[in-house]
Amino acid sequence: MGRDRVIQIGFVGVASSSILVVGLIFLFLFKEAAPFAKHPGLAALLDNQWIPVSFQKERFGILPLAAGTVLVTSIAMLVSVPLSALAAVYIAEVAQPLEREILKPFIEILASIPSVVLGFFGLVVLAPLIKQFFGLNTGLNALTGGLLLALMAIPTIVSVSEDAINSVPATYRNGSMALGASRMQTIWRVVVPAALPGILGAVMLGTGRVIGETMAVLMVTGNAALITANPLSPVRTMTASIAAEMGEVPFGSIHYQALFWVGIVLLLITFGLNFVARRISVRYGMMR
Amino acid sequence: MKYRGLILGVLATAILAGLTGCGNNTGDKQQAAGSGQTRYLTIKGSDTMVHLVSEWAEAFMQKVPTADLSVTGGGSGTGIAALINNTTDVCAASRSIKEKEIALAAEKNIHPTEFKVAMDGIALVVNPANPISQLTVEQVKKIFTGTVNNWKQVGGPDQPILVLSRESSSGTFVFFQEHVLDKQDYSPNARSLPGTSAMIQNIATDAWTIGYVGLGYAQQAADKVKTLAIAPAPDQPAIAPSVATINSGEYVIARPLFLYTGGEPAGLTKEFLDFALSGPGQEIVRQAGYVPLQ
Fold it and tell me: How close A3 comes to chain B (CA, Å)?
């Protein structure tokens, strides 16, 4: 085995360390969560209530938490996807160089705001606004959480979509123009469809960011574990439950194991999303 | 052939990670074997009291540099068990020791001695705009379990009650559930907040909310929230929480906090207890959000 071979193995090792980490995370999650399957059994996770601390009967249904995550994520995506896609098209295709110089850094700054800071902003500014606008008694609900998360998803979606639009070859635009299409026709009928898989990938990335977000939703969603589709009712997301309860839960207890199951479900959801995003890219020949 | 490199690589990183992971453990056990006269004291018990006891321990170690105190939580029951098994010098407990536990300790020739060191009072707080200024314990229970959900039902205006609770990891959550809700579950509609400051912030901004916080915090935020007076029973007068009414037992949503020793305290244990009960010790109680003894 020559020196080249050793160095090669070294590099492959470094590159594949993330595979190892993902494998270990899965292993560890299952190891901690496993005893739950024996007692009280996995069926307990299908309960429709999450009451982990009770003198009556402890209940560990993941359903209300999953419903919370789905509701908050849907609101965030409904708001952020149209805004970000339009913003990306504008920045990439329409904006003057000067505008681009100003817009891009500011959108990137939005991405770098720590989520606790955004959460605090949500608690002190956004929640009272929502409360007033809808005439509610409190602004701690799924809508506030969703809007806050939309703010976090926008920079991701804009940057990645913009890259996708920029990577559409200039020959497409030139060809379209040469056939007599106007600028807008070129943008909407040629450039955007060509960049669509990239934009979809961006949306998936944004969704992943939103689902995994913890601190901001913990602060503004009210954290009541209800199964509801009403954006004005409080919800408890999976991430918020783990963050709020893991700190004080007795080590190795059923509650502790249940939180690990929540983690596993969360991981499976994000895995699924990534998988779908890859399939879309492969299908439209966007894999780089 | 292509995959062999990959597999070898993964193995190589695994071994590397394993090596670096093991490297750290050796240095830990070295004790601060300073002057040779360092005296150790362990305190174990109530999670509610961990913050308070740690503050005491830090102040005490500054005063007595030769003392080395270690504070751990785990719950009152865990602490008492440790006292009985003689694995801790002092036990912090947010409940009194049970007869059964005293008997168990006596078998091992340990005689737990109780010291009341502070009181933990829970104040019910509402927005200052709320006309309600007093409730009975029964009404509080009904509000937090969800059987009463409109202020009209407790003599207020026709507005829905927004119940704010703490996360289940909070000691206050469990105390409130056990003593005020009679071990019933909280209403599923109760919004839970990650901290006392978030609780105060929301009650200060939202008109028809109700929540609970340690008395110390309610007093600090007296300009933002209104503290309710609580009547033990409908035919009894409502009592506002204060250091005086909590110490006299008139205000009922409160509990004593104890330190237990395995016999008459002596040496460092006695010094620490004396410090906890001294003026500066009780000032720390007040700063930690609990109620000092008079």
Answer: 14
